[in-house]
Amino acid sequence: KESDALFWQDELLQVLYWLTGEGLGPKVRWQDICALLDADAEMLWAQAEQLTARGFVEWGEEADGSRWLRLTEAGEKREVADLRKPSTIYSVKGMGRAVPIAIAITP
């Protein structure tokens, strides 16, 4: 369903932006992303590939075969614009369940 795909693409971008801001980027390990999002890893990867095709993220592999993602400049600009919206909600997995975290940013 297209609305589900867009939801998970937004979640991926939000988590990438957040983890990068926390100093875990610019390359964020795929396993770290999956640990935070309560969703099927294959479905998430399909959404990451869509974001790559749209120019919002880049991905690569380390020598050990582990994957990473990073926001492109276009992806970062999109997230900054989204954060300025008063209704932005981040969802991260905590204590075995998804916990919404509201973030308010004043221009």
Task: Give a verbal description of the structure.
The chain is globular. It has a 3-stranded antiparallel beta sheet with strand order 1-3-2. The N and C termini lie far apart (34 Å). α1 (2-24) packs across α3. The chain has 107 residues and is an alpha+beta fold. Mean pLDDT is 79; it is low at 87-107. It has helices at residues 2-24, 30-36, 41-53, 73-83, and strands spanning 28-29, 57-61, 67-71, 89-94, 97-102. It contains 4 helices and 5 strands; from the N terminus they run αβααββαββ. The longest helix has 23 residues, at 2-24.
Short synopsis of the structure:
This protein is of the alpha+beta class and 107 residues long.
List its traits.
alpha+beta, three-stranded antiparallel sheet, 107 residues, globular, two-stranded antiparallel ribbon, 4 helices
CA radius of gyration is: 13 Å
Beta-strand portion reads 15-25%
**Major β-sheet profile:** 3 strands, antiparallel
Order of helices and strands: HEHHEEHEE
Tell me, rounded to a whole number, the average pLDDT. 79
Write the layout of secondary structure elements.
Layout: H1 2-24, E1 28-29, H2 30-36, H3 41-53, E2 57-61, E3 67-71, H4 73-83, E4 89-94, E5 97-102
Antiparallel strand pairs: 1-3, 2-3, 4-5
Helix pairs in contact: 1-3
